[in-house]
Amino acid sequence: MQENKPDTKNGSHLKQVLGLPTGILLVAGIMIGSGVFKKIVPMSQTLGSEPYILMAWIIAGIITIFGAFTYAGLASMTTQTGGVYEYLRLIYGDFVAFLFGWTIFSIVGSGAIAALSFVFAQSVNTLIPLPNPLNTFKDVGISQSIYPFADSGIKILAVLTIMLLTWVNYRGVNKAGILNNIVTAAKILGILLLIVSGLIYSDHSVASQATTSTVTHPQGAALFSGLFGAMLSALWAYDGWANITFVTGEIKNPKRNIPLAIIGGVGIAMTLYVLLNYTYMKVLPVSQLAVLGADKIAAAEVARILMGKAGAVIIAVLIMVCTFGALNGCIISYPRIYFRMAQESVFFKKAAVVHPSFSTPHIALLYSAVWSVILVCSGTFDQITNLVIFASYAFFGLTTLGLIRMKMKGIVTAKVIGYPVIPIIIILFCVILVINTIITQTQASIIGLFLILSGIPFYLYFKNKYKQAITD
User: Fold this and answer.
1) By the number of CB atoms within 10 A of the CB, which of 133, 261, 294, 454 ranks highest?
2) Phi (first) and psi of residue 251, to 5 degrees
3) Residues forming a β-bridge with 9
4) Calculated CA dihedral for residues 380, 386, 387, 393, nearest 10 degrees
């Protein structure tokens, strides 16, 4: 196993200032974005059954909690920042870890930041129509696929939001943590308000006026396929739970608090997700949810029935708060991977610098912001984020396999709940998910694989440039 290096540069270091409550709210805050407000529609179309839909959310939540048990074992190997990147480095070496980090930088992390900032700006636009100062150039494109000046008002606000939150994070992780706690508490209270309103709702006269459809309940193999597809929708809403591991170097007592934060945050999200989806189906039958158009947000329709015209405004504000909070959490976590990569001489070296006053990886934050802003302006982040689940679960399976490898070597000696059954279940699940994605979304899978492997020349460049600095 390779030796860990301290998180230091020029006499400064990352400080362990984030406690367990902030860790739990960071996990929940990153996870609770816009997905839970929209995914009920495709799930209703696929399954057409309330119990099966709730089952999909519960199973996806259980798989996520199983992941927490797995990462609890891996967390015992190191207290370094970087989380999954660091686990992969210690298990498989620099190359595999770099491919993960490159995937986060080029696809997963930066794409998520771009998408969340854009959805946040869209939510603002529904409440306060934004001007489009560059509308004259909206048809100016590159390769007939990239139109940087289209939706200029939304893109400008998205870029400004990334810059604002990067500045907050630049000035200290503690400040960013406080902001996360406030915003996450607000979004949880907002969701609870919607849940309570739905649970006490009894007048179905308005809902009955909605268009309905005949939904066929799948059987046998079709049921398995449908349930698996619905779980993919749920997993998108659960995505981001592992981000807390990226800030390991700034969490107090990380070997204890990282696993507890994941379990606590996932537990909060899972409870809210199941109750909220039950609320949707209590107010609107599955047959009515299934026929909502692509431009309709299920939560907004339910809120409109519960609260009238004010409901649509409330949901717009709630989605705005949720995406803002998730965006802040992503800006906190992803740059820590680039920071750790730079320490290992497989990224731009300046990204390893720690700010002497704020104790933050400020250069890594700036790299993250610049690439995310480019993705916002290009408008390609939607295509990129479609590859997130494929890439994330490919590395999730590889990391879980690494736990078994480290246990067999005696390097991980900590007790892992459910070992070896739970890790084997996770690996099989990831293999099925990746294979299913390759079969059903072949083109997207090929693009995702190409983007992952595009990191190889960069890896060779960094290794050659900094080979004198590598001491391992």
Assistant:
1) 261
2) -100, 130
3) 12
4) 150
Amino acid at 135: N
Contact 314, 197 (CB under 8 A): no
- pLDDT tier for residue 137 given thresholds of 50, 70 and 90: low
Cβ count near 219 (within 10 Å)? 9
Q: Which residues pair with 251 in a beta bridge?
A: 18
DSSP E strands in 23-89: the ranges are none
Is the Cβ–Cβ distance between 266 and 241 less than 8 Å?
A: yes
CB 191 within 8 A of CB 272: yes
What's 208's DSSP letter?
G
Q: Give me the pLDDT at residue 2, please.
A: 45
Confidence of residue 1 (pLDDT cuts 50, 70, 90): very low
- Asked if residue 182 lies in contact with residue 334, where contact means CB atoms within 8 angstroms, the answer is no
Query: Could you tell me the fold of the domain covering 8-466?
Result: Amino acid/polyamine transporter I (1.20.1740)
DSSP code of residue 4: P
The two structure tokens encoding residue 288: 């009515």
Which amino acid is residue 431, in one-letter code? V
Domain ranges in the chain? Answer: 8-466
Q: What is the pLDDT of residues 42-94, one digit of tens each?
A: 888 877 788 888 988 998 888 888 888 888 888 888 888 888 999 999 999 99
